[in-house]
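I'm curious: can you give me some protein's one-letter sequence along with its backbone structure tokens because I've never seen that pairing?
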Amino acid sequence: MFLDFKQDQWLDTAVSGIRFHLDRKRVRRELEGHLEDKKADLRRIFPDIPEAEAQSRALAAMGDPEELKTALAKVHKPWLGWLWQASQWVMPLLMFASLVLSSNCRGIDCSIWGRNGGRVYHQIKDGDAAQVGGYTFQITGAAFLDRPEGKDHIQLALRASSPRFWERVDGDAVLAGLTATGPDGARYRMAGQGDARWVGDEAEPRETVRRPSWLLHRWGVGWKEFLIYIPAEGWTPGDRASLELESGVGGFVLSVPVEEKVRVE
């Protein structure tokens, strides 16, 4: 009993500087495990060593508990512990808020996460990515859509995400300066949802293309994914399509080979 009391005193002193209770308990268990390991090593080397001596030598090898107390207090800041504990409540609260918002509005973008229909016909895991204005943009899908009525399209999936999880990504703002380029070199500037407009030499005017340009596909906390459709004129497997953004805070050009052909009924 006396031996246990001496060890408990050492452990209690060593962890007393840790103010967050969960960290304090965890570190105490770890230190206790180290002490038991040291005593076991001593017993292996000196089979006849008395228990009191094994404990004293193990505690001495662990160092001064007051010095260890100061060192552990510097490492284990209480606000980190409380922040971690608070985070355990964040996701349930977000889920509850999502359910409330979803049940009280009819808009396609009123919940915290969801899906607005559509489908990414060929997903890409490591597509081109760029950072502009604090956002990360990445191509997450590309496919040639073979339609029976002959109006073939190339589908590109673009994800825009922000490290600020509380920030809602504004799709209109993201795509306002976006231009898509097809395999034949024709460039299509994003207009309103459902519109695409051809951009080219005025000496070679072309009729405005009225086909689905982009659709909000799905979204989550701090990110949205858009489906972008452009005419597939002149496409052969492996031809590249690209997305170009021009904005006041910078721009990018993301390019991807379109290899997957999908029959869309």
